[in-house]
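User: Reviewer 2 asked us to show a designed sequence for the structure in our supplementary figure. I'm pasting the C-alpha coordinates here. Could you produce the per-position amino acids so we can include them in the response letter?
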Protein backbone atom coordinates (compact mmCIF):
# COMPACT_ATOMS: atom_id res chain seq x y z
CA UNK A 1 0.00 0.00 0.00
CA UNK A 2 2.86 2.36 0.77
CA UNK A 3 4.55 1.64 -2.57
CA UNK A 4 1.25 2.19 -4.39
CA UNK A 5 0.85 5.53 -2.62
CA UNK A 6 4.37 6.58 -3.63
CA UNK A 7 3.79 5.55 -7.25
CA UNK A 8 0.60 7.59 -7.30
CA UNK A 9 2.51 10.70 -6.19
CA UNK A 10 5.15 10.39 -8.91
CA UNK A 11 5.21 12.69 -11.92
CA UNK A 12 7.28 12.73 -15.09
CA UNK A 13 9.67 15.20 -13.48
CA UNK A 14 10.41 13.21 -10.31
CA UNK A 15 9.66 9.63 -11.39
CA UNK A 16 13.24 8.51 -12.05
CA UNK A 17 14.62 9.99 -8.83
CA UNK A 18 11.67 8.73 -6.75
CA UNK A 19 11.86 5.18 -8.07
CA UNK A 20 15.57 5.02 -7.30
CA UNK A 21 14.96 6.29 -3.76
CA UNK A 22 12.03 3.86 -3.35
CA UNK A 23 14.20 0.87 -4.22
CA UNK A 24 16.99 2.08 -1.95
CA UNK A 25 14.65 2.54 1.04
CA UNK A 26 13.23 -0.97 0.62
CA UNK A 27 16.68 -2.49 0.13
CA UNK A 28 18.03 -0.73 3.23
CA UNK A 29 15.03 -1.89 5.25
CA UNK A 30 15.59 -5.46 4.09
CA UNK A 31 19.29 -5.36 5.00
CA UNK A 32 18.41 -3.95 8.43
CA UNK A 33 15.70 -6.61 8.87
CA UNK A 34 13.08 -3.93 9.40
CA UNK A 35 10.69 -4.75 6.56
CA UNK A 36 7.95 -5.96 8.87
CA UNK A 37 8.54 -3.58 11.77
CA UNK A 38 8.72 -0.26 9.91
CA UNK A 39 5.70 2.03 10.13
CA UNK A 40 5.53 2.53 6.36
CA UNK A 41 2.60 4.94 6.61
CA UNK A 42 4.93 7.43 8.24
CA UNK A 43 7.80 7.07 5.74
CA UNK A 44 8.13 9.99 3.30
CA UNK A 45 10.40 9.89 0.26
CA UNK A 46 12.50 13.05 0.03
CA UNK A 47 12.09 13.12 -3.74
CA UNK A 48 8.29 13.32 -3.35
CA UNK A 49 8.28 16.25 -0.91
CA UNK A 50 6.74 19.26 -2.75
CA UNK A 51 9.47 21.73 -3.67
CA UNK A 52 8.91 25.47 -2.99
CA UNK A 53 8.40 27.71 -5.98
CA UNK A 54 11.49 29.59 -7.12
CA UNK A 55 9.76 32.94 -6.87
CA UNK A 56 11.22 36.04 -5.29
CA UNK A 57 9.43 36.40 -1.93
CA UNK A 58 9.21 40.15 -2.47
CA UNK A 59 7.56 39.82 -5.87
CA UNK A 60 4.01 39.50 -4.54
CA UNK A 61 4.62 42.23 -2.00
CA UNK A 62 5.91 44.55 -4.72
CA UNK A 63 2.96 43.71 -6.95
CA UNK A 64 0.48 44.50 -4.18
CA UNK A 65 2.27 47.77 -3.41
CA UNK A 66 2.14 48.85 -7.04
CA UNK A 67 -1.56 48.00 -7.27
CA UNK A 68 -2.21 50.03 -4.15
CA UNK A 69 -0.26 52.96 -5.56
CA UNK A 70 -2.32 52.93 -8.75
CA UNK A 71 -5.70 52.61 -7.09
CA UNK A 72 -4.85 55.06 -4.28
CA UNK A 73 -5.09 54.79 -0.54
CA UNK A 74 -8.81 55.40 -0.66
CA UNK A 75 -9.39 51.88 -2.06
CA UNK A 76 -7.30 50.38 0.70
CA UNK A 77 -9.24 52.31 3.31
CA UNK A 78 -12.47 51.20 1.63
CA UNK A 79 -11.40 47.54 1.79
CA UNK A 80 -10.52 47.85 5.46
CA UNK A 81 -13.82 49.56 6.19
CA UNK A 82 -15.73 46.92 4.23
CA UNK A 83 -13.91 44.11 6.01
CA UNK A 84 -14.63 45.68 9.40
CA UNK A 85 -18.30 46.17 8.61
CA UNK A 86 -18.68 42.59 7.41
CA UNK A 87 -17.03 41.33 10.56
CA UNK A 88 -19.38 43.42 12.68
CA UNK A 89 -22.47 42.30 10.77
CA UNK A 90 -21.42 38.67 11.21
CA UNK A 91 -20.33 39.15 14.78
CA UNK A 92 -22.96 36.78 16.10
CA UNK A 93 -21.39 33.96 14.00
CA UNK A 94 -17.86 34.51 15.32
CA UNK A 95 -16.50 31.95 17.79
CA UNK A 96 -16.44 33.46 21.25
CA UNK A 97 -13.83 31.71 23.45
CA UNK A 98 -16.23 32.11 26.37
CA UNK A 99 -19.15 30.54 24.52
CA UNK A 100 -18.98 26.92 25.73
CA UNK A 101 -21.98 25.80 23.64
CA UNK A 102 -20.30 27.02 20.42
CA UNK A 103 -17.07 25.35 21.36
CA UNK A 104 -18.87 22.06 21.96
CA UNK A 105 -20.61 22.30 18.59
CA UNK A 106 -17.30 22.91 16.88
CA UNK A 107 -15.64 19.97 18.69
CA UNK A 108 -18.51 17.68 17.66
CA UNK A 109 -18.20 18.74 14.03
CA UNK A 110 -14.46 18.07 13.92
CA UNK A 111 -14.95 14.73 15.65
CA UNK A 112 -17.44 13.73 12.96
CA UNK A 113 -15.06 14.79 10.16
CA UNK A 114 -12.23 12.87 11.82
CA UNK A 115 -14.40 9.73 11.90
CA UNK A 116 -15.17 10.10 8.21
CA UNK A 117 -11.51 10.56 7.25
CA UNK A 118 -10.47 7.63 9.40
CA UNK A 119 -13.15 5.46 7.80
CA UNK A 120 -11.77 6.40 4.37
CA UNK A 121 -8.32 5.29 5.41
CA UNK A 122 -9.49 1.97 6.83
CA UNK A 123 -11.99 0.90 4.21
CA UNK A 124 -10.70 2.52 1.02
CA UNK A 125 -13.40 3.05 -1.60
CA UNK A 126 -15.80 0.33 -0.54
CA UNK A 127 -18.77 2.63 -0.28
CA UNK A 128 -19.03 2.59 3.51
CA UNK A 129 -18.07 6.25 3.87
CA UNK A 130 -21.14 7.20 1.89
CA UNK A 131 -23.38 5.78 4.58
CA UNK A 132 -21.74 8.01 7.20
CA UNK A 133 -22.11 11.08 5.01
CA UNK A 134 -25.73 10.24 4.39
CA UNK A 135 -26.45 10.18 8.11
CA UNK A 136 -23.79 12.16 10.00
CA UNK A 137 -25.60 11.70 13.27
CA UNK A 138 -24.63 8.02 13.18
CA UNK A 139 -20.90 8.73 12.82
CA UNK A 140 -20.42 7.83 16.49
CA UNK A 141 -21.31 4.24 15.62
CA UNK A 142 -17.96 3.87 13.87
CA UNK A 143 -15.97 4.77 16.97
CA UNK A 144 -18.22 2.71 19.22
CA UNK A 145 -17.97 -0.39 17.07
CA UNK A 146 -14.20 -0.07 16.98
CA UNK A 147 -14.05 0.37 20.76
CA UNK A 148 -16.41 -2.60 21.22
CA UNK A 149 -18.93 -0.65 23.27
CA UNK A 150 -21.13 -3.06 25.29
CA UNK A 151 -24.24 -1.12 24.29
CA UNK A 152 -23.66 -1.82 20.60
CA UNK A 153 -22.05 -5.25 20.71
CA UNK A 154 -25.45 -6.93 21.00
CA UNK A 155 -26.76 -4.99 17.98
CA UNK A 156 -23.98 -6.10 15.62
CA UNK A 157 -24.85 -8.94 13.21
CA UNK A 158 -22.91 -12.15 13.66
CA UNK A 159 -19.39 -11.73 12.23
CA UNK A 160 -18.64 -13.65 9.03
CA UNK A 161 -15.49 -15.80 9.46
CA UNK A 162 -14.76 -15.27 5.74
CA UNK A 163 -14.35 -11.52 6.34
CA UNK A 164 -11.21 -10.86 8.42
CA UNK A 165 -12.14 -7.21 9.17
CA UNK A 166 -15.87 -7.64 9.70
CA UNK A 167 -17.85 -4.71 11.05
CA UNK A 168 -21.44 -3.48 10.96
CA UNK A 169 -20.86 -1.73 7.60
CA UNK A 170 -19.87 -4.93 5.77
CA UNK A 171 -22.00 -5.48 2.65
CA UNK A 172 -23.75 -8.83 2.16
CA UNK A 173 -25.09 -9.49 -1.34
CA UNK A 174 -28.56 -10.84 -2.08
CA UNK A 175 -28.48 -11.43 -5.87
CA UNK A 176 -29.22 -14.96 -7.13
CA UNK A 177 -27.86 -14.45 -10.66
CA UNK A 178 -25.07 -16.86 -11.61
CA UNK A 179 -23.52 -14.77 -14.37
CA UNK A 180 -22.94 -11.02 -14.43
CA UNK A 181 -20.76 -9.01 -16.79
CA UNK A 182 -18.04 -6.91 -15.20
CA UNK A 183 -18.76 -3.20 -14.80
CA UNK A 184 -16.48 -0.79 -12.97
CA UNK A 185 -18.20 0.59 -9.86
CA UNK A 186 -18.94 4.32 -10.03
CA UNK A 187 -21.20 4.53 -6.97
CA UNK A 188 -21.87 2.79 -3.68
CA UNK A 189 -22.38 -0.99 -4.20
CA UNK A 190 -25.99 -2.16 -4.21
CA UNK A 191 -26.46 -5.43 -2.25
CA UNK A 192 -29.25 -6.43 -4.66
CA UNK A 193 -26.69 -6.55 -7.48
CA UNK A 194 -24.04 -8.45 -5.51
CA UNK A 195 -23.94 -12.25 -5.19
CA UNK A 196 -23.35 -13.84 -1.77
CA UNK A 197 -20.65 -16.45 -1.19
CA UNK A 198 -22.81 -19.52 -1.82
CA UNK A 199 -23.93 -18.17 -5.23
CA UNK A 200 -20.35 -17.21 -6.13
CA UNK A 201 -19.26 -20.81 -5.49
CA UNK A 202 -21.89 -22.03 -7.98
CA UNK A 203 -20.71 -19.38 -10.43
CA UNK A 204 -17.11 -20.60 -10.22
CA UNK A 205 -18.17 -24.21 -10.87
CA UNK A 206 -20.09 -23.10 -13.96
CA UNK A 207 -17.18 -21.00 -15.25
CA UNK A 208 -14.76 -23.92 -14.92
CA UNK A 209 -17.17 -26.09 -16.88
CA UNK A 210 -17.55 -23.43 -19.59
CA UNK A 211 -13.76 -23.09 -19.85
CA UNK A 212 -13.36 -26.83 -20.37
CA UNK A 213 -15.98 -26.53 -23.10
CA UNK A 214 -13.78 -23.92 -24.84
CA UNK A 215 -15.89 -20.87 -24.05
CA UNK A 216 -14.74 -17.47 -25.33
CA UNK A 217 -11.97 -16.11 -23.10
CA UNK A 218 -13.20 -12.52 -23.26
CA UNK A 219 -16.54 -13.60 -21.80
CA UNK A 220 -14.87 -15.85 -19.21
CA UNK A 221 -12.51 -13.03 -18.20
CA UNK A 222 -15.40 -10.57 -17.76
CA UNK A 223 -17.23 -13.10 -15.58
CA UNK A 224 -14.15 -13.71 -13.42
CA UNK A 225 -13.55 -9.98 -12.94
CA UNK A 226 -17.19 -9.60 -11.90
CA UNK A 227 -16.80 -12.53 -9.48
CA UNK A 228 -13.64 -10.97 -8.02
CA UNK A 229 -15.45 -7.64 -7.67
CA UNK A 230 -18.28 -9.22 -5.67
CA UNK A 231 -15.72 -10.82 -3.36
CA UNK A 232 -13.92 -7.50 -2.93
CA UNK A 233 -16.94 -5.34 -2.06
CA UNK A 234 -18.03 -7.94 0.50
CA UNK A 235 -14.44 -8.15 1.81
CA UNK A 236 -14.48 -11.95 1.58
CA UNK A 237 -10.96 -13.34 2.01
CA UNK A 238 -10.78 -17.09 2.40
CA UNK A 239 -9.57 -20.20 0.56
CA UNK A 240 -12.34 -19.76 -2.01
CA UNK A 241 -11.08 -16.24 -2.78
CA UNK A 242 -7.56 -17.60 -3.25
CA UNK A 243 -8.91 -20.33 -5.55
CA UNK A 244 -10.73 -17.78 -7.72
CA UNK A 245 -7.59 -15.70 -8.26
CA UNK A 246 -5.42 -18.78 -8.86
CA UNK A 247 -7.78 -20.21 -11.48
CA UNK A 248 -8.16 -16.88 -13.27
CA UNK A 249 -4.38 -16.43 -13.24
CA UNK A 250 -3.85 -19.82 -14.89
CA UNK A 251 -6.46 -19.07 -17.55
CA UNK A 252 -4.77 -15.74 -18.24
CA UNK A 253 -1.40 -17.47 -18.59
CA UNK A 254 -2.86 -19.97 -21.02
CA UNK A 255 -4.02 -17.23 -23.40
CA UNK A 256 -1.11 -14.86 -22.73
CA UNK A 257 -3.18 -12.19 -20.95
CA UNK A 258 -0.44 -10.78 -18.74
CA UNK A 259 -2.49 -7.78 -17.63
CA UNK A 260 -5.04 -9.94 -15.82
CA UNK A 261 -2.37 -12.38 -14.68
CA UNK A 262 -0.38 -9.64 -12.96
CA UNK A 263 -3.51 -8.33 -11.23
CA UNK A 264 -4.27 -11.82 -9.91
CA UNK A 265 -0.66 -12.37 -8.85
CA UNK A 266 -0.61 -9.09 -6.89
CA UNK A 267 -3.79 -9.98 -4.99
CA UNK A 268 -2.57 -13.53 -4.31
CA UNK A 269 0.55 -12.16 -2.62
CA UNK A 270 -1.68 -10.20 -0.21
CA UNK A 271 -3.92 -13.20 0.46
CA UNK A 272 -0.97 -15.52 1.08
CA UNK A 273 0.50 -12.94 3.48
CA UNK A 274 -2.73 -13.21 5.50
CA UNK A 275 -1.95 -16.89 5.99
CA UNK A 276 -4.75 -18.18 3.74
CA UNK A 277 -3.98 -21.58 2.25
CA UNK A 278 -3.40 -21.84 -1.49
CA UNK A 279 -0.89 -22.93 -4.15
CA UNK A 280 1.77 -20.69 -2.67
CA UNK A 281 4.67 -22.76 -4.04
CA UNK A 282 3.32 -22.67 -7.59
CA UNK A 283 2.80 -18.91 -7.69
CA UNK A 284 6.08 -18.18 -5.93
CA UNK A 285 7.80 -19.97 -8.81
CA UNK A 286 5.75 -17.98 -11.33
CA UNK A 287 6.79 -14.71 -9.71
CA UNK A 288 10.48 -15.64 -9.91
CA UNK A 289 10.11 -16.50 -13.60
CA UNK A 290 8.25 -13.27 -14.29
CA UNK A 291 11.00 -11.25 -12.61
CA UNK A 292 13.51 -13.10 -14.81
CA UNK A 293 11.43 -12.09 -17.81
CA UNK A 294 11.62 -8.45 -16.74
CA UNK A 295 15.35 -8.79 -15.91
CA UNK A 296 14.62 -6.92 -12.70
CA UNK A 297 17.65 -8.13 -10.76
CA UNK A 298 17.24 -5.92 -7.71
CA UNK A 299 13.60 -6.93 -7.09
CA UNK A 300 14.46 -10.55 -7.87
CA UNK A 301 17.31 -10.66 -5.36
CA UNK A 302 15.13 -8.97 -2.75
CA UNK A 303 12.27 -11.41 -3.31
CA UNK A 304 14.44 -14.53 -3.36
CA UNK A 305 16.24 -13.31 -0.24
CA UNK A 306 12.93 -13.34 1.65
CA UNK A 307 12.26 -17.02 0.85
CA UNK A 308 12.88 -19.55 3.57
CA UNK A 309 15.08 -22.61 3.09
CA UNK A 310 11.93 -24.75 3.09
CA UNK A 311 10.35 -22.67 0.31
CA UNK A 312 13.51 -22.86 -1.78
CA UNK A 313 13.48 -26.66 -1.51
CA UNK A 314 9.96 -26.97 -2.97
CA UNK A 315 10.07 -28.51 -6.49
CA UNK A 316 8.49 -25.64 -8.43
CA UNK A 317 10.50 -22.96 -6.61
CA UNK A 318 13.66 -25.05 -6.92
CA UNK A 319 13.08 -25.24 -10.68
CA UNK A 320 12.60 -21.46 -10.96
CA UNK A 321 15.80 -20.84 -9.00
CA UNK A 322 17.63 -23.25 -11.32
CA UNK A 323 16.40 -21.17 -14.26
CA UNK A 324 17.77 -18.07 -12.54
CA UNK A 325 21.13 -19.76 -12.06
CA UNK A 326 21.31 -20.96 -15.67
CA UNK A 327 20.63 -17.45 -16.97
CA UNK A 328 23.14 -15.81 -14.64
CA UNK A 329 25.85 -18.28 -15.75
CA UNK A 330 24.92 -18.10 -19.44
CA UNK A 331 24.33 -21.87 -19.45
CA UNK A 332 21.89 -22.00 -22.35
CA UNK A 333 21.99 -25.82 -22.54
CA UNK A 334 20.71 -26.11 -18.95
CA UNK A 335 18.20 -23.30 -19.52
CA UNK A 336 16.47 -24.97 -22.47
CA UNK A 337 16.44 -28.31 -20.68
CA UNK A 338 14.65 -26.58 -17.77
CA UNK A 339 12.23 -24.99 -20.24
CA UNK A 340 11.24 -28.39 -21.62
CA UNK A 341 10.72 -29.75 -18.09
CA UNK A 342 9.00 -26.81 -16.41
CA UNK A 343 6.41 -27.85 -13.77
CA UNK A 344 2.83 -26.55 -13.64
CA UNK A 345 2.46 -23.65 -16.11
CA UNK A 346 5.98 -22.29 -15.78
CA UNK A 347 6.65 -22.82 -19.49
CA UNK A 348 3.83 -20.38 -20.32
CA UNK A 349 5.73 -17.61 -18.54
CA UNK A 350 9.05 -18.71 -20.03
CA UNK A 351 7.43 -18.48 -23.47
CA UNK A 352 7.47 -14.70 -23.02
CA UNK A 353 11.27 -14.56 -22.95
CA UNK A 354 12.29 -17.81 -24.69
CA UNK A 355 13.00 -16.07 -28.02
CA UNK A 356 15.27 -13.56 -26.30
CA UNK A 357 17.27 -16.37 -24.71
CA UNK A 358 17.41 -18.24 -28.03
CA UNK A 359 18.98 -15.17 -29.59
CA UNK A 360 21.50 -14.86 -26.74
CA UNK A 361 22.40 -18.54 -27.17
CA UNK A 362 22.76 -18.19 -30.95
CA UNK A 363 25.12 -15.24 -30.52
CA UNK A 364 27.37 -17.39 -28.33
CA UNK A 365 27.07 -20.43 -30.60
CA UNK A 366 27.83 -18.55 -33.83
CA UNK A 367 30.90 -17.04 -32.17
CA UNK A 368 32.08 -20.49 -31.02
CA UNK A 369 31.45 -22.59 -34.16
CA UNK A 370 32.22 -22.24 -37.85
CA UNK A 371 29.02 -23.97 -38.94
CA UNK A 372 25.88 -25.24 -37.21
CA UNK A 373 23.49 -27.86 -38.52
CA UNK A 374 19.83 -26.80 -38.52
CA UNK A 375 18.77 -29.98 -36.67
CA UNK A 376 21.36 -29.23 -33.95
CA UNK A 377 20.00 -25.70 -33.54
CA UNK A 378 16.48 -27.11 -33.31
CA UNK A 379 17.47 -29.63 -30.63
CA UNK A 380 19.72 -27.32 -28.60
CA UNK A 381 17.30 -24.36 -28.52
CA UNK A 382 14.16 -26.43 -27.76
CA UNK A 383 12.32 -25.90 -31.06
CA UNK A 384 9.64 -28.51 -31.70
CA UNK A 385 10.66 -29.07 -35.34
CA UNK A 386 13.50 -28.04 -37.70
CA UNK A 387 10.92 -26.07 -39.67
CA UNK A 388 10.17 -23.96 -36.58
CA UNK A 389 13.91 -23.29 -36.15
CA UNK A 390 14.20 -22.32 -39.82
CA UNK A 391 11.28 -19.87 -39.44
CA UNK A 392 12.87 -18.31 -36.37
CA UNK A 393 16.16 -17.78 -38.20
CA UNK A 394 14.35 -16.34 -41.22
CA UNK A 395 12.50 -13.88 -38.97
CA UNK A 396 15.87 -12.55 -37.78
CA UNK A 397 17.28 -12.35 -41.29
CA UNK A 398 20.00 -15.03 -40.96
CA UNK A 399 18.40 -17.75 -43.09
CA UNK A 400 20.25 -16.22 -46.06
CA UNK A 401 23.44 -17.69 -44.60
CA UNK A 402 22.22 -21.28 -45.02
CA UNK A 403 24.20 -23.78 -47.04
CA UNK A 404 22.09 -26.36 -48.89
CA UNK A 405 19.00 -24.32 -48.04
CA UNK A 406 16.81 -26.36 -50.42
CA UNK A 407 18.06 -29.71 -49.15
CA UNK A 408 16.36 -31.84 -46.45
CA UNK A 409 16.49 -30.33 -42.97
CA UNK A 410 19.27 -32.62 -41.77
CA UNK A 411 21.58 -31.30 -44.53
CA UNK A 412 20.97 -27.58 -43.97
CA UNK A 413 23.93 -25.79 -42.37
CA UNK A 414 24.26 -22.24 -41.01
CA UNK A 415 27.42 -20.24 -41.79
CA UNK A 416 28.21 -18.86 -38.32
CA UNK A 417 30.73 -16.10 -39.04
CA UNK A 418 28.42 -14.27 -41.43
CA UNK A 419 25.34 -14.80 -39.22
CA UNK A 420 26.97 -13.61 -35.98
CA UNK A 421 27.00 -9.89 -36.74
CA UNK A 422 23.39 -9.94 -37.97
CA UNK A 423 22.23 -11.79 -34.85
CA UNK A 424 24.02 -9.33 -32.57
CA UNK A 425 22.40 -6.34 -34.27
CA UNK A 426 18.96 -7.99 -34.22
CA UNK A 427 19.28 -8.67 -30.49
CA UNK A 428 20.16 -5.05 -29.75
CA UNK A 429 17.21 -3.77 -31.74
CA UNK A 430 14.55 -6.24 -30.59
CA UNK A 431 15.43 -7.67 -27.18
CA UNK A 432 17.53 -5.13 -25.31
CA UNK A 433 14.47 -3.46 -23.78
CA UNK A 434 11.79 -5.45 -21.98
CA UNK A 435 8.14 -4.40 -22.06
CA UNK A 436 5.75 -6.22 -19.76
CA UNK A 437 2.05 -5.52 -20.11
CA UNK A 438 0.23 -5.03 -16.83
CA UNK A 439 3.38 -5.24 -14.73
CA UNK A 440 2.79 -4.74 -11.00
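Assistant: Here is a per-position design you can include in the supplement:
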Amino acid sequence: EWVAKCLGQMTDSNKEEAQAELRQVIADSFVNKALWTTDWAGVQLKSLVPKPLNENPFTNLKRKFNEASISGTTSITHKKTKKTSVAKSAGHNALDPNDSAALNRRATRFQREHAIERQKGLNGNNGHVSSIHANPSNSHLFHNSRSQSPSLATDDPEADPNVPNWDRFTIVGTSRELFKDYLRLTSEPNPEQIRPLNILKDTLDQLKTRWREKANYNWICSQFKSLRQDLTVQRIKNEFTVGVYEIHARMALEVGDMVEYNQCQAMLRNLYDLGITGKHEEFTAYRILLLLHGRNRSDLNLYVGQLTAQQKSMPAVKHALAVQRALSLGNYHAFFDLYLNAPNMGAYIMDHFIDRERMRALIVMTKSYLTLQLVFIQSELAFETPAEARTFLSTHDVAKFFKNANSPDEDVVLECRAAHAVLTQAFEEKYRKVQIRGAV
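For the response letter, you might also mention the following. The beta strands are 371-373, 402-403, 413-415. Residues 217 and 312 are 34 Å apart (CA to CA).
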